[in-house]
Amino acid sequence: MKLSPKDIARFCSKVDVKGKDECWPWKAGKVKSIYAQFWTNGKDIGAHRVSYQITYNKFDYKLCVCHKCDNPICVNPKHLFLGTRKDNNKDRDIKERTQKGINHWCARLTEKQVLEIRQKAKDLDNKGLFKKFTTKEIANNYDITETHARYIINNQNWSHI
User: Fold this and answer.
1) At how many degrees (to 10) do helices 111-121 and 146-153 cross?
2) For every residue of 58-73, which 3-state class applies, written as one string?
3) In three state form, how does the secondary structure of 96-136 look?
4) How many CA atoms lie within 13 A of 140 on its CB side?
């Protein structure tokens, strides 16, 4: 990605620069109100990626620019490091940042509802039907898809409970 001096100046005007070891919050556009974005060359790019490129003159779409500080709006280059998707996921898991259950951004059920669905699944007969309800009826009852219901029953979703 090529950045003009004008792009760099515009980028810098959108950063709240603090102490050298502190997070430098991004003051401009964000995606999902979380991830800092910078518009350049006709597309949105993660502001942390732009910061890394400006500082270290490296940009590789195949690699992630990861946060040591786990602050998605931080663009302090001292808080950033390059890694693969696997590295980034491992860092997330070690720091236990994975959103699970009702804390996940797209959760539609509570833990109580998931346990109810699993309890009903224990009464499954050999034809794949519940004694009182079909999978489809349970899915409709909880306003989820049949596939989602099956994933819950098979511990593929909500496996932490």
Assistant:
1) 80
2) CCCCCCEEEECCCCCC
3) CCCCCHHHCCCCCCCHHHHHHHHHHHCCECCCCCECCCCHH
4) 5
Q: What's the pLDDT band for 52 if we cut at 50, 70, 90? A: very high
Query: What pLDDT is stored for residue 15 in this prediction?
Result: 97
Phi and psi at residue 25, in whole multiples of 5°? -70, 145
pLDDT (tens digit per residue) in 62-106: 999 999 998 889 999 999 999 999 998 888 878 877 666 666 656
**pLDDT, position 68:** 92
d(CA 65, CA 26): 15
Domains and CATH numbers, the chain: 5-94 (3.90.75), 102-153 (no CATH)
Pairing of strands 64-67, 30-31: unpaired
Model pTM? 0.62
